Fold:
Amino acid sequence: MHALVTVDWLVEHLAADALVVVDASMAPPGTDDPLPTDGIPGAVRFDIGGTMSRSDASDGLGPVGVHDMLAPADFERELRALGIRAGDRVVAYDAAGIFSSARAWWMLRAAGIEAAVLDGGLPAWVDAGQPLAPVAASTGLEGDVTVAWDASALVDAEVTATALATGTAAVLDARSPSRFTGDEPDPREGVRAGHMPGALSLHYGALAPAGRMLPMDELGRRLQAAAGDRPIIASCGSGVTASVVALAATLVGREATVYDGSWSEWGHAGSGRPVVTGD
Structure:
């Protein structure tokens, strides 16, 4: 299965026994927008803002990495609770087109599960005249999936700091340009405005305008312009839209990883990490 699938592909394969569709919709930070209750028929809720993210503050800094990856055993437990079984393929979508679905895809990929993102997400499904149904809490089956963890999928602040200092990897920040420069305050309490010294701005929307990924050749050109030939470390506010950059890189055969804590960790007032503003 390709990492990016179309509505037509999903319609054709939706009834497959080993295909699970997950709704990974989440509200943008700083909003209280409700999640859609209806989605693609058969879809189950992949709650990135809740059970699918770590919520502890282990080092006393507050919400460090507010959407940090669960420990492998905890992620396996949550996937089994959704009814995901060994051998299942998973297609993730979200209500914004391509926003948080890429994070679900990256998490599943890191867990050794074959997964894809629906290009255009729920809006593309609706635009194609396809039916909707309530999003379920689980498939109703007893999940038995086993997580085979890929430790290279996510990196921490130390690895990111080393890359910034040495230039061995390009750290691409998927937040909006105004968040990157610090002209716009961070929506999370206790998180400073600005960016990591040496990071480069590449807004995720520049890779997926209107919620659809650009053609492969254009994705390649934009990543080359931003990162050159270096490996990519993708960052954002909390590791969600960084995964859109990782998706784009994967689609064009580039080496990429995601800084899991992202700006909510690095930019936290108690982190001790340097922050700069401006371009």
